[in-house]
Design goal:
The protein contains 11 helices and no strands. By secondary structure, it is an all-alpha fold. It has a domain at about 190-279. This is Prenyltransferase. It comes from Alkaliphilus pronyensis.
Amino acid sequence: MAIDKQYLSDFQVILSHRYDNGADYWTTPDKRLIKGSPFSTLDCVSYLLELGMESTEPLLKDCADLIFSTWQEDGSFRLYPKGSIYPCHTAHAANVLCHMGYVYDARLQKTLKHLLDTQYIDGGWRCNKFSFGRGPETQYSNPFPTLNILNAFRFSDYLNKEAALERAVDFLLDHWTVRKPIGPCHYGMGTLFMQVEYPFRNYNLFCYVYVLSFYDRAKGDTRFLEALKALEAKMVNGQIVVERIVPKLAKFSFCKKGEPSSLATIRYHQILKNLGSNL
């Protein structure tokens, strides 16, 4: 699918930021692929895919090569040239590449195995980085990187066949009950989480329901169905209305705050398709 003409202005805005960070493809000369948010390399690739650009387009093929250039032999991705490699970085890169259609690339298959091998004891994925200090809540995994990892795995042959992924789903469903901020990065389910954010950039209700709808483990679970009901209660005339948006994306036509989004509503219909007879 090509980008519809109604979204060409959004495409042009994304392209206008292409060299903001000092190098091509929205990155820095030393390949910091998540610097410059919300116009980092990984962000902008995600927007272009959301707008309908085919991953076979030369621009996105070059971006894929750039992302893979940060791949490490153990399967992780180094999104910064120095410092520790965190699971959230690998999760973000893997998620974007899976959306681009590279799930069966040998390097990404090794990444998926690496992620399974590094799963934390509670079923999620956890970075040993304590920006908010240490406390009982930091003994949990980080929910959003875990959700991103499930978002990547849904493209793979592991979907609904791997016990480790079922444990990850259980971890996220448990968070619906706990609600409080957990993990070293303090991901909670408060006011901001319950606001519909689109495109999917942060841990929020819409992204949570969307990703979990691909997993049989979640379908029919009362916690998941409560989350789905909460999402549907926010819809207007059968359409998803964007409640929260990063200010720098406010001028995009496909995700205007306070207005229905056709592309977001397509995501909602995918949820319904995933659930099928489970509704």
